[in-house]
Structure formats: structure tokens, C-alpha cells
């Protein structure tokens, strides 16, 4: 008897009909003799609606109260799905993050899971029930509700799979697996049958939206096998797990990310320890910094550029004003019309010329490089946003990743794909 943890995203639960489809899938597993735990996101755009509601009454809502509000979205999903399962003749119990024993740190809106106390879940499973858990949330030692950040339901699912020693953690979404590039941009992207934790971590860090990076880190640390698949078709998905192919491809995938902004601090004083003080102040403000580049001009002045999520600019700009006043920084420039392109692959470690090929393709596309950062298995560049899609397609071809077929269906919305499938049946 296998134990499965199945996570369903908001698109998979956006309508009553989709909730019922998910319930049928879980009941089918249950009737095959599996022990089933479902983890759910909020239905459709509920989280965005709740966030808008909060900001309509307070432009800067207190983090504690905001987490308490946003957590209700997943709690509604869990109850509705449990009702749909019961309607199919199988007993189900819905559990909030607190009831499921998901203990977290005290950082609101970006809490980390510190422990999973799975006693209640195991009790419900032993009674023959399908357990439905609200994702994206947990509880602090003091009893405050916290949320785990965007994509946090992925992390909830993997943490539960680790705590329950599940046989498999299935992540259902509106994509059919992990591709060599976003198939909505690169029509000849190939779906990967398997991908290693390390490559998936780099893809997630570079901006691939298939899995939250923290969930992949947890899976690697606890040996959880993840299976990414579509909630709208029976297509074979992608396994994320330990191990590599006998001869791994040089490049695993290419990712573009338009969610970043580039910040340049102008005229930073050239003194020892200033960078530590500067980025320490930014970190204390809870802002996540990605790529960092420092340039020293012929006049001895230093410019420091870095990237941050655009969603954090409202939090960052008051900090930058403070840095100008306290540290003697002359000023700063924020550019939002930028994109990050990353080439990822463990095979790059033993293959020279990967960076040169990337730069040549981008130059041929008329794309200028603003920033460059590398790791052993990733090269990332920040460029102007114009022309990024064409550059992605050219890079995909240059690295020999093109599939023989054109994934036209990936241009369909989840609703259109579901309608097409229904018509086909």
C-alpha cells in the first residue's frame, strides 16, 4: 500500500467542475488501495483577490494580519475538495496547516517550515480517509498563522512527503512536466522524462515557474521523489530525483525571467566593509537580492548593480533612500524593462565554449548584455526585455534542444485545453 502526496495548484481547482475532477482522481487512487494526502492551493485567483482586498483598506497591511487573511484561501479549497470527495462515497478530512502539524519560523509572508508533526494526518489515514491539507501555511510556536510565500504549496507538499515518508510526491499543475524551455515561448521545447535535483534547483532559481525552489531543496535534502504532471491530461510527466543519465546532455534547459528589476547604486564610496554594510541593510529590510556586479570607474567611484524581484521594489526604495543619506551613495537607478536569461546544465562543467556560444547567439539577435553571473552549471545574463523571446528560441536551437514536434497545445489556456480534451472524449 503506497502513500501518495498529491498537490493541486489554483488553476486545477478554479471551478466546481475542476474540484470534482480532482476529487475523482483522488478517489480512484484510494480505491486502488493507496493512502492519499492531498495538498491544495487557493482556488483560481483567490490569493490575488484577498491581497487586493487587504490593500483596499490598508495600502501597507500588517504582515501578521495579511498572513491570517491569505491563509483562508487554501482553507476554503481544502473544505470544498473534502466535500467533493465525500460526495463520491469516500470519507475525507480537511486539515489546516496548524491541524496538519506544519510548524514554521516566525517570519510572516516568507516563513520556513521547521518541523512536520504528522500524528493527526497518520490517524486520519489509519481510519481509511483521504486527507486534504491546506498548503502555503503553517503555525508558529506561539500559535500565529504564517504563509510560506508564492508557490508555498509546493513546499508544503514536499515537507509532508518527507515527514510522512511518502512513496511519491505528485505536483499537479497546468503544465505537463518540466520542459527544456517555456513551451509557450519556444514551440519546439522538449519535455524531460527525468531531471536531477541539481538541475531543477538551477532552473527554479533562474525563474522557471514549474516548482518553487525551496520545495526542490527540501526534496533533495530528504530524498523525496517529485513527479510533475498535468491536472488536465493523462500525459506522462517529469520525475525530479537523484541520479543522472549515463551521458547527460550538455544543456538541460533555458529559462527567461521577466519578474526582476535591475538596481544600480551610483557613486558608492570605495572603502572596506561598505558592501557588507550596504547589503546587510537591504537584507535586514527583507529584500531578496539576486545577481550582483560591481564596476569601478576611472575616477575611483564604484557603481554596484544588482537584481531584485519587481514585487519588492516598494519595500526596497525607502531602504535605498536611507543608503543615500547614511552611506554617502550618490544616487540610484531602477530599471524594470529587463529580463534574465539562464542556460542550465550539469554537462556544462566539462564542456568548454558554452558561454561563448550563448553570447554569440545573443549578439546575433541584437541583444546587449548588462550583467553576467555564472555557477558550475548555470550561466545567467541580464538583458533588455525587448527581443527576449526570439533570443530564447535561437538559443534553444543552438544548443540542440529542439523537439521534432511543435507543442501547439501549450498555447492553450487551461480552460481551452480542458474543453479540447472533453470534446475528444
Fold topology:
Elements: E1 3-8, H1 16-31, E2 35-40, H2 46-57, H3 63-87, E3 92-95, E4 102-104, E5 113-116, H4 119-126, E6 130-134, E7 137-139, E8 145-147, H5 152-164, E9 168-173, E10 194-196, H6 197-206, H7 213-222, E11 226-230, E12 238-241, E13 253-257, E14 260-268, H8 274-284, E15 292-296, E16 302-309, H9 313-326, E17 331-335, E18 338-344, H10 354-364, E19 369-375, E20 378-384, H11 388-398, H12 414-424
Parallel strand pairs: 1-2, 1-9, 2-6, 3-6, 9-11, 10-12
Antiparallel strand pairs: 4-5, 7-8, 11-12, 13-18, 14-16, 14-17, 15-16, 18-20, 19-20
Helix pairs in contact: 1-3, 2-3, 5-7, 6-7, 10-11
What does the model show?
- The structure is a single chain.
- With 425 residues, this protein is of the alpha/beta class.
- Helix 6 packs antiparallel against helix 7.
- The chain is globular, with a radius of gyration of 23 Å.
Spatial strand sequence of the major β-sheet:
3-6-2-1-9-11-12-10
Shape: globular
Alpha carbon gyration radius: 23 Å
Uncertain spans, ≥5 residues at pLDDT below 50? Answer: 408-414, 420-425
At a glance:
This protein is an alpha/beta fold and 425 residues long. It has helices at residues 16-31, 46-57, 63-87, 119-126, 152-164, 197-206, 213-222, 274-284, 313-326, 354-364, 388-398, 414-424; strands spanning 3-8, 35-40, 92-95, 102-104, 113-116, 130-134, 137-139, 145-147, 168-173, 194-196, 226-230, 238-241, 253-257, 260-268, 292-296, 302-309, 331-335, 338-344, 369-375, 378-384. The protein has an eight-stranded mixed β-sheet with strand order 3-6-2-1-9-11-12-10, sandwiched between helices. A four-stranded antiparallel β-sheet has the order 13-18-20-19, with helices on both faces.
Amino acid at each position: 500500500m503506497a502513500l501518495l502526496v498529491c498537490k493541486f495548484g489554483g488553476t486545477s481547482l478554479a471551478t466546481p467542475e475542476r474540484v470534482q475532477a480532482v476529487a475523482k482522481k483522488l478517489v480512484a487512487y484510494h480505491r486502488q488501495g493507496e493512502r492519499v494526502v492531498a495538498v491544495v492551493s487557493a482556488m483560481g485567483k483567490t490569493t490575488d483577490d484577498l491581497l487586493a482586498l487587504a490593500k483596499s483598506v490598508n495600502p501597507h497591511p500588517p504582515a501578521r494580519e495579511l498572513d491570517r487573511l491569505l491563509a483562508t484561501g487554501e482553507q476554503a479549497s481544502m473544505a470544498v475538495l473534502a466535500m467533493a470527495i465525500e460526495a463520491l462515497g469516500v470519507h475525507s478530512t480537511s486539515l489546516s496547516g496548524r491541524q496538519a502539524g506544519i510548524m514554521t519560523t516566525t517570519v510572516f509572508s516568507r516563513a520556513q517550515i521547521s518541523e512536520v508533526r504528522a500524528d493527526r494526518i497518520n490517524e486520519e489515514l489509519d481510519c481509511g480517509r483521504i486527507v486534504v491539507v491546506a498548503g502555503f501555511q503553517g503555525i508558529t510556536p506561539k500559535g500565529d498563522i504564517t504563509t510560506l510565500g508564492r508557490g508555498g504549496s509546493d513546499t508544503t507538499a514536499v515537507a509532508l512527503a518527507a515527514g510522512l515518508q511518502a512513496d511519491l510526491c505528485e505536483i499537479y499543475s497546468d503544465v505537463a512536466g518540466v520542459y527544456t524551455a517555456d513551451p509557450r515561448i519556444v514551440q519546439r521545447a522538449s519535455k524531460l522524462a527525468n531531471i536531477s535535483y541539481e538541475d531543477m534547483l538551477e532552473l527554479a532559481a533562474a525563474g522557471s515557474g514549474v516548482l518553487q525552489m525551496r520545495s526542490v531543496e527540501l526534496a533533495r535534502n530528504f530524498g523525496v521523489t517529485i513527479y510533475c504532471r498535468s491536472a488536465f491530461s493523462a500525459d506522462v510527466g517529469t520525475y525530479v530525483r537523484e541520479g543522472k543519465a549515463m551521458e547527460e546532455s550538455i544543456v538541460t534547459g533555458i529559462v527567461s525571467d521577466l519578474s526582476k528589476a535591475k538596481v544600480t547604486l551610483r557613486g558608492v564610496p570605495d572603502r572596506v566593509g561598505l558592501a557588507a554594510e550596504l547589503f546587510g541593510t537591504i537584507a535586514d529590510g527583507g529584500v531578496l537580492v539576486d545577481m550582483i556586479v560591481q564596476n569601478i570607474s576611472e575616477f575611483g567611484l564604484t557603481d554596484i548593480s544588482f537584481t531584485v524581484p519587481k514585487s519588492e521594489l516598494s519595500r526596497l526604495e525607502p531602504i535605498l533612500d536611507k543608503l543615500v543619506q547614511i552611506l554617502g551613495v550618490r544616487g540610484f537607478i531602477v530599471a524594470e524593462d529587463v529580463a534574465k536569461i539562464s542556460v542550465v546544465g550539469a554537462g556544462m562543467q566539462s564542456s568548454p565554449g558554452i558561454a561563448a556560444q550563448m553570447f554569440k547567439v545573443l549578439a546575433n539577435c541584437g541583444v546587449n548584455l548588462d550583467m553576467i553571473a555564472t555557477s558550475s552549471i548555470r550561466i545567467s545574463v541580464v538583458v533588455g526585455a525587448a527581443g527576449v523571446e526570439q533570443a530564447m528560441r535561437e538559443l534553444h536551437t543552438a544548443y540542440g534542444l529542439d523537439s521534432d514536434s511543435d507543442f501547439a497545445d501549450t498555447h492553450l489556456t487551461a480552460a481551452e485545453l480542458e474543453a479540447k480534451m472533453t470534446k475528444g472524449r
